[in-house]
Design a protein that fits this description.
The structure holds three protein chains of three kinds. By secondary structure, chain A is mainly alpha-helical. Chain A is 69% helix and 0% strand. The chains are: A mainly alpha, B mainly alpha, C mainly alpha.
Chain lengths: 314, 482, 220
């Protein structure tokens, strides 16, 4: 098995297996609410259904409306290529790629906002403006957290950072990592549109942020958007796992190593899914103008993480 | 035994008083026993030089000076309270039994701090004084009392937390420079080993800064004094007297002990400069603030702040004159301030208010109390032939003999400000026409007697300090400058 | 046994991080219960430190003190505070006088400040810089909490955090003060919290609220 083949396989796992993660979270939430919950493979059926349907566009929209979801998908899939999951390497990797990751994701969100505005629906405009505010505020802590971790590892390449973290001792709790994890976890919630920043299952338009932007979409465009949301969640979670708890990841191309890496990765994803589900079931959504406060705290934590790289040895 | 008895009586007394309905009589009985025990202790110390019990209790001449003053003040406060509380309407406060019980506990904690030879134990009992007196300060069920009590509790506990940090830092410095761990908090051992501490100079300095800030909060140095005016104004008058006359001295005692160690370890420059700084600032600012006061007891509270500044200046100057003046002043100020607070209590009871602008023509309404106020006022500003003149003159001479002219100027300016403020406020209260004629209430015999005793003491000490007391003070100075 | 020793040394090493996290948690907390839980966690970390020191130095006194910390600061006082919140029927919000964002920023600044303050003393005292800075940070953030919170109960917690910081500083520099002093300090702490609780009731009864920042009758 060559490195390239492994990279391609883990990329496909990330991208194609993403919908299952969202279904898992929904299933655990259903169990908590003592409901049956839907099948784990349901999202695939939904996606197939949507792909077969017709793509309706508002009469006042421009080609940008149909172009936006494609741009979103493209950027998120490029971002997914930067993240290692099972083996300590990724399809794409170069110095400074964590900054590229942040801004590629931002590019996708930008086009999504444009597409929403293009749809000329008031709810979509509202959603786009809210999303813009959140992403503007989330950029700082995201970059600060990643920079702190990068300074500590003395590497600018996500794969290299992961390799460095793998060599560290688990029990030497690192101040930088602890605070950066707190900051990045808060940003992850904002980025992927989960509670308490945004409720992905709400049907009340005035409380929507991301869902409001996609109200006008249908058919394959909607399928792409839903799929991309799932991939984004998977990317963000895999990034968190890789940067902060990568132990178990395969370091060599042996079958045993890869099997261990795969099971470790899946186990961690499942644990995170359960944690997210429990969190979503127990706290209420934040009011809209508490979100800047929430992200402000994340920014303070990110700044502190960077300061800590200078003050503490680990 | 001689050391344990004065400590046991108040503790047991506090418990006993809670069970008897005739609280005042029981309290007076127990109080008499306690005063007897304290006097015995003071005489024993005077005769033997120092008395010790076990590892943690010790009394030397310095302790005896403060014990004498505590004994006198406690006796006066107890007698005054018995009269004062009987005049108060019963719904104004919680219960008479708790008052005496808490008073005894308060006395116990102060006594225990005086008698501790271990600096950590000293801290523990200083914190105990805060806890014991908090409920006394907030004794009345009024808004002001509750606010004052809370502020007192929080500010003093925070201040003492800093003092704890200082204590630990000093302990650390001692241990690191070779003193054995078990005796690194014992004052006499630290005094003996102090020259060794000069190795950890920075740490000793850090410790002293925290200690002066911490215990300075309890003493009432500006700018740490925020609890003081409120606590004095809202507490019952006998408790205000106890606070000003006994508690502030207790905190000053702690500073004296620490200053002695610091001087032996790193020389007098650092600690004395800090004391002079805090003292000077307190004198000036308290003097200025006295002018704008509108409540009588707050006025007296700021006067206490000023006098604590004077004492700190005396310690900071050091030498035979400065230190002598400071030690003598702790006693003189206690007695004079008690007179003022007792008189204020009378004013409150008979006129119903302590607001200066609402009182006038007091000489006609309450002749005896007016006399007491004039006497106390003259004493507190340092007029001869009252005792404070002697101690303040000593401190001033000390300043001039060391050519510290700035200190002397600040001292004199502060005293003048205080004099002016008191004159202004008293003239307003005592002169003019009475606002209305209240039902003439007699001054209780106890209150009369108490103020009379204070006046006599102040006159005696003003004319000639009794030889025994002189010997005690000189012994105390010897203890501090070993 | 080797595992216990390993745990002890790791506890000593990573305590600073956990303490910083609790400090930040206290700064960002919006409800009373979060603050009380943060304080309990902080005391638990301190207890782990005490027990680790006891294990490494083999002194039984430190074990006793560790047990006392757990009993009083981790279990007793938080339980008492929760009961107090219940009985006072106080609204659960924390009455922060500035927004949580600024509070967290200022706390981060205080942490940085404590590192700079500790720098000169580290060589002299031969202690780990992180933990001493954590102790100073606890003291500073306790003072800041006291100033920035208007609620009586929060001031109690701020005071407790301050004492925690002093306790930690004493622990790592002296590895334990004489027993009687430690016990006396604990006793004072418990009595202090008790008295503050009594006063909180009085404030609530007299003023109908627990907002200490509104107690401004006495001024000047």
């Amino acid at each position: 098995m060559t490195t390239v083949a492994v990279n391609v396989l883990q990329y496909l796992l990330l991208v194609l297996g993403a919908p299952v993660l969202r279904a898992l979270i929904a299933r655990v939430k259903a169990l908590i609410q003592r409901r049956q919950g839907s099948n784990l493979w349901r999202p695939y059926a939904d996606l197939l259904k949507l792909f077969r349907k017709e793509d309706l566009v508002p009469p006042t929209s421009s080609p940008l409306f149909r172009f936006a979801p494609m741009m979103l998908t493209a950027s998120t899939f490029v971002a997914a290529a930067l993240v290692p999951t099972v083996y300590q390497s990724a399809l794409l990797g170069f110095a400074g790629d964590f900054i590229v990751l942040v801004y590629v994701l931002a590019l996708g969100r930008f086009f999504m906002g444009l597409g929403a505005l293009d749809g000329s629906s008031s709810f979509a405009g509202m959603g786009a403006s809210r999303e813009a505010m959140i992403s503007a505020l989330a950029e700082a802590p995201l970059l600060l957290g990643l920079i702190a971790v990068a300074i500590l590892a003395r590497q600018g390449n996500i794969v290299e950072i992961v390799r460095w973290t793998l060599k560290q001792n688990f029990f030497d709790v690192s101040a930088v990592h602890a605070v950066a994890f707190a900051a990045l976890a808060m940003v992850a919630i904002a980025e992927t549109g989960r509670m308490p920043v945004d409720n992905p299952t709400t049907h009340l338009e005035l409380t929507m942020i991301h869902e409001a932007m996609v109200l006008e979409y249908s058919g394959p465009s909607l399928a792409l958007i839903e799929w991309t949301q799932a991939v984004k969640l998977n990317v963000v979670l895999s990034l968190l796992i890789g940067l902060f708890a990568p132990w178990g990841m395969a370091t060599s191309l042996t079958f045993a190593g890869l099997a261990l890496g795969l099971s470790a990765y899946l186990l961690k994803l499942v644990v995170l899914a359960i944690v997210i589900a429990v969190l979503e079931s127990s706290i209420a959504k934040l009011r809209m103008y508490m979100v800047p406060e929430f992200l402000g705290i994340a920014t303070a934590l990110g700044a502190l993480a960077v300061v800590f790289t200078a003050l503490m040895r680990r | 035994m001689v050391l344990l008895l004065p400590l046991l009586i108040p503790v047991l007394g506090a418990a006993i008083v809670l069970f008897f309905r005739r609280a005042t009589r029981t309290a007076l009985l127990i109080g008499t026993a306690e005063i007897a025990a304290l006097s015995w202790l003071t005489f024993a110390t005077y005769r033997h030089g120092s008395v010790a019990f076990g590892h943690y209790l010790r009394a030397d001449h310095l302790t005896a000076v403060f014990l004498a003053s505590l004994c006198v003040i406690f006796a006066l406060v107890l007698v005054y309270s018995s009269g004062y509380l009987r005049h108060l309407p019963p719904e104004r406060f919680s219960s008479v039994r708790w008052f005496y019980a808490l008073l005894f506990l308060f006395l116990f904690t102060m006594l225990a701090s005086y008698l501790s030879s271990n600096l950590g134990l000293l801290w523990i009992f200083m914190e105990g004084t805060t806890l014991a007196s908090a409920l006394l300060v907030g004794f009345y069920e009024t808004e002001g009392a509750v606010e004052a009590g809370w502020k007192y509790l929080v500010v003093c506990t925070v201040g003492l937390a800093f003092a704890l940090f200082g204590t630990i830092a000093l302990y650390l410095a001692a241990v690191k420079s070779g003193v054995a761990g078990g005796s690194a908090l014992d004052w006499t051992s630290l005094m003996a080993a102090a020259p060794q501490l000069s190795v950890m100079k920075n740490l000793v300095k850090l410790a002293f800064v925290f200690l002066i800030v911490g215990y300075g909060t309890k003493v009432g140095f500006v700018p740490l004094h925020s609890w003081l005016p409120d606590a004095h104004a809202e507490a019952p008058s006998p408790i205000s007297a106890m606070l000003s006359a006994a508690l502030l001295n207790c905190a000053m005692y702690a500073l004296l002990r620490y200053d002695a160690i610091a001087v032996r370890a790193i020389g007098p420059g650092f600690s004395h400069h800090l004391l002079l700084l805090f003292g000077g600032v307190s004198i000036l600012i308290a003097g200025l603030l006295m002018i704008v006061q509108r409540d009588l007891k707050r006025l007296f509270a700021y006067s206490s702040v000023e006098h604590m500044g004077i004492i700190a200046t005396g310690i900071g100057l050091g030498g035979p004159l400065g230190l002598y003046g400071a030690l003598l002043h702790t006693f003189n100020h206690s007695v004079a301030k008690s007179v003022l607070f007792f008189a204020a209590g009378n004013v409150r009871e008979n006129l119903g208010t302590l607001r200066i602008d609402r009182i006038s023509g007091m000489t006609r309404m309450l002749p005896f109390t007016s006399g007491a106020l004039i006497l106390g006022g003259l004493a507190i500003v340092g007029m001869p032939p009252f005792a404070l003149f002697v101690s303040e003159f000593a401190i001033l001479s000390g300043a001039f003999s060391q050519a510290r002219h700035l200190v002397a100027v600040i001292f004199l300016v502060g005293l003048t400000l205080a004099f002016g403020a008191l004159l202004f406020h008293f003239l307003h209260m005592l002169g003019g026409e009475p606002k209305d004629t209240p039902e003439s209430r007699k001054v209780a015999g106890t209150e009369l007697a108490v103020i009379g005793v204070c006046a006599v003491v102040l006159l005696i000490f003003g004319v000639h300090v009794p030889a025994q007391f002189q010997k005690l003070v000189e012994g105390a100075m010897a203890v501090l400058q070993q | 046994m080797v595992l216990v020793d390993l745990a002890a040394s790791k506890a000593l090493g990573s305590a600073a991080v956990l303490l910083f996290l609790t400090v930040l948690m206290l700064a960002a907390a919006k409800r009373m219960s979060t603050s009380i839980v943060a304080f309990a966690l902080q005391s638990a970390v301190l207890a782990a430190q005490v027990l680790a020191v006891a294990r490494i130095h083999g002194s039984t006194e430190s074990y006793v003190i560790g047990a006392l910390v757990i009993l009083i600061k981790v279990l007793g006082i938080p339980y008492a505070l929760f009961r107090l919140v219940d009985k006072l029927q106080a609204p659960h919000d924390v009455k922060l006088s500035l927004s949580p964002v600024y509070s967290v920023f200022i706390t981060a600044g205080l942490i940085f400040l404590s590192f700079t303050a500790v720098h000169t003393y580290v060589q002299e005292l031969r202690v780990s810089e992180d933990v001493l800075a954590a102790a100073v940070a606890l003291i500073l953030s306790g003072a800041f909490l006291m100033v920035s919170h208007g609620k009586a109960l929060m001031q109690i917690i701020a005071l407790l955090v301050l004492e925690n910081g002093i306790f930690l500083a004493a622990l790592i520099t002296t590895f334990g003060m004489p027993m009687i002093i430690e016990i006396g300090v604990f006793f004072d702490l418990v009595m202090g919290v008790l008295l503050m609780g009594i006063f909180a009731f009085r404030i609530r009864d007299t003023f109908e609220h627990l907002d200490v920042s509104k107690l401004r009758r006495l001024r000047g």
